[in-house]
Amino acid sequence: MAFIDLDRVSRRFGKHRALDDVTLHLEPGRIGLLGPNGAGKSTLLKILLGLLPLSSGSGRVLGYPLEAPAHGLGLFNPVRALRAMFGSGSALRRSIGYMPEADALVPGTTGAQYVALAGELYGMPRRQALRRAHEVLTYLDLEDARYRKLEEYSTGMKQRLKLAQALVHDPPVLLLDEPTSGMDPAGRERMLDLLLCLGRDHGKVILLSTHLLGDVEKVCETVVILHRGKVLLQGVVAQLRARRHDRYRLQIQGPPQAFLEELRLEGVEVLHDNGRGELRVAVPPGWVTRAFFALADNHGVLVRGLQPDDEALEELFHRVIGEAR
Amino acid sequence: MATGAAQDVTLLHYRPWRGEFRSPVWGVWPIARTALGMLLRRKLFWFLYAAGLLIFLMFFFGTFLLDWAQTQLSNTPFELSATERKVRSTDLIRMAQRGLRVLNGSQETFAYFFMYQGAMLMVVLALAGSVLVGNDFHFGSLPFYLSKPLSRWHYILGKCLAVGVVVNLLTTLPALVLYAQHGLDEWEYFTDPEFFWRTNSGTGPAGLPLLLGVLGYGLLLTVFLSVTLVATASWVRRTMPLIMVWTTVFLFFRLLSSILVDGLHYDEHWRLIDLWNDLRLVGYACLGIDQRRVVPFPQPQVHEAALVLGAVCLLCLTYLNLRTRAVEIVK
């Protein structure tokens, strides 16, 4: 069963089209949702959660159909009002743990109370919700802070707490909206390790919405690039990154000047030299890699590393966005 | 060597949970409980609640006091030396009996009780609104609630339930204690609806009809005030603006209607803009009090007041529907 199946889905807010004819078919896995600010990532997440009805199109998430286009207030339509009252989209949201981008904390509560409350709202009995809250907080290394008021939490702790409330009912799917936003590098690494562990070792389907390419590169195996409400690209990261047979990364040891000069004379373009013996070069057609070693040997340089320079995710992202413009 | 984060992940294993989920309706009470928990932690609430209980205690012990006064004064005439005027005990007894009509457990007792207690209730609600509801909008907690398997109506119901608990703690619950107090004094008060006519000690029904009237008045206050408070607090969010709106709706409109009808002799329907008066009219009807006994006179019809209250509730619910939907879109 596909995790997400969207067919020509659009969502308008007045005249603004937040999502425009989005067609997506994603299998379970670790999926990165990339896009600049205003690309429609958060709108897509809310549609997947069943919080926003579609303006047009159709779709299914985990087999549950997404809400049809809304007409009127709902309050004056008894059938719609009753559907809203008795749980439209509730079965879908029970299978999903959502970590919002905004703080979305309940002031005055402690960490344990907040996570237990989330468990109860998901439908867990109170006692089990409390026990599970302590377990999850311990897993996320918030054991010592669980009786502290939320107002006293640091940004990193708040992010982990939001992950805890999304995990409390052990959902098969996690929707994460900018989970590393505002975190310091160490905290960010820690969060990404946790997400990778949850996805890889515990089989959680992760949809990670972010504009930080490094987060996606570390955690995700599949990527969807959104821009101005449209899907520009989707697929497995390793397959999407272009194989560039004319580019190499070189690591050398020894005086580089003469070696570099010789390379240039042979038609090799040095794209980047970090000054510490690491180079990125573009070679002319018909170049054989053995030539690097021969030239280096001529100039007393040791080639310590040589590997193809495939496209990085960042380059892929900029290329795709640039083509769209 | 593994990093600290990696070590933690390795050491503290994630454990799956395999349990049964309950219906989303079960989420309503935790929402109310959390809101109440925040309110009950405030000393100001307990101070105001204690002040509210003073009115209840006045009614509770007033009965005993007047009983005692009636017994004491029936045989002991005495002089007021300052005025050198003799006051006969019968005059004082008459005065005590007038007081007893308010404190004898009849429909009038509960009408006065709800009126006095209502004033304190309005103060408490104006101060509690931002804690119970407004903070969710101010601190952006709504995405937390709405991303769970609840609909927005479950959320609204939870918040109304929290306000309803406060309303009932200050009105219906003490009123029921008063009812029980009178019933324990004379058991027939519980069982005989004709008790007051038979004993010639008051007016209106006793027993179950009176109990239902008290519960009806309490329910009316609960539903109307919870819906209006949740709507108002989600609109203005903070305490001071909430007090200003509350004062305008329940005090300024009251004065305005009084000026229009009593001062300028406009049609009595202008009293309908005074929501507290509308609540009083419908509440008195629940207690079985004749509309002609409601002062000031003239008053609009009960069904007209009920219509206005219903319309205000509907307006508030429509606003809440739009307000919570907007929050889903704009964090």
What report would you give on this structure?
The complex is a heterodimer of chains A (325) and B (331). Chain A has 12 helices and 14 strands. Chain A is of the alpha/beta class and 325 residues long. In chain A, the strands form 3 sheets. Chain A has a 6-stranded mixed sheet with strand order 6-7-8-3-9-10, sandwiched between helices. In chain A, strands 2-1-4-5 form a 4-stranded antiparallel sheet, with helices on one face. In chain A, strands 12-13-11-14 form a 4-stranded antiparallel sheet, with helices on one face. The mean pLDDT of chain A is 88. Chain B is 73% helix and 2% strand. A two-stranded antiparallel sheet of chain B has the order 1-2. Chain B is globular. The N terminus of chain B is likely disordered. The interface between A and B is large, with 58 and 51 residues.
Give a short summary of the structure.
The complex is a heterodimer of chains A (325) and B (331). Chain A is of the alpha/beta class and 325 residues long. Chain A is 36% helix and 26% strand.
